[in-house]
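Q: What structure does this chain adopt?
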Amino acid sequence: MTFPAYILRRLLLMIPTFFGITIVCFGIFQIAPGGPVETYLAKVRFSGAAGDSGKGSSQSSQGSSAASSKSVTDEVVEELKKRYNFDKPIHVRYWLWLKDVAQLEFGYSHTKGEPVLDVIASKLPVSVTFGVTSFLLTYLVCIPLGILKAIKDGSRFDAVSSTGLFVAYSIPEFMLGILLIHFFAGGQFIEWFPIQGLTSLDSENWPWWQRLLDAAWHMVLPLTCYMIGGFTMMTMLMKNSIIEQIKQDYVRSALARGVTQRTAILKHALRNALLPLATGFGGILTLAFAGSIVIERIFNLDGIGRLSYEASLQRDYPILMASITITAILGLLGQLLSDLLLRVIDPRIDFSKRD
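A:
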């Protein structure tokens, strides 16, 4: 199978995969209790009960609440069901949703009262900034560090750096965020960094370069939490991949010809050693969109992760389905991007043997 034919096949396979993901998620959201209709009715009944509580009569409150519930049930429920298409079978609702998605229309958020795409677009800059920056910095730091650890394998530098990496990896990101705030931003020890947000209060009138530095300064702590999860894995993967390539015959032949170990690694082993890392490079697409719920809540960042978390609590299904749909598409495209990078790194890869 030629490479273009393989790409076409992968694109075609994305179609049933996309349908499978969206059908399962759509079905779960539709049958789960506490949907938009129930949420609206609960708000109306709660507000009616709260208003009646000030009248001072329990019997009047109970009677008025029951009348309000009956009135809501008789006059509003059917209209609400029609608005959210709950008066139709689930397969019809999915088809209507799919037609809207084909036109890039994800509906309205019933908690925010705005188009879903507008809501997501307003949160996207934060998640994209942290996702892309952490991803690129991880690769830019971990590849040289992994190479250096492979060159100095077994040395004191290798042992100390490995210890530090695994200690950092063992700390959960939410605990790391709390510790960073406590020691470096809370004023208890060293108050070097801001506690939350991305800008200072009076930064609107600052020059652009000063605002840029201010944003970078605000990003240091949350960016550390973003990077710490994959930093250790990426570094050790790079080191082990280099060491594995050093054992290959083509590197040993180069060493036998008098080439230094450093030259053999950089000129011969590095290209093949990058293949395992290239398989995960497509994750930049989903990482840039998904955000992190824990980190965004700890540092009070208004990103996609926090939006999805709040939407799940409020049963805002249009936002949840839009997030899942976009993430699924980006994930599928990211896997294809990884294959393209593999082909760029090693043109000898035979895609005819891949599923």
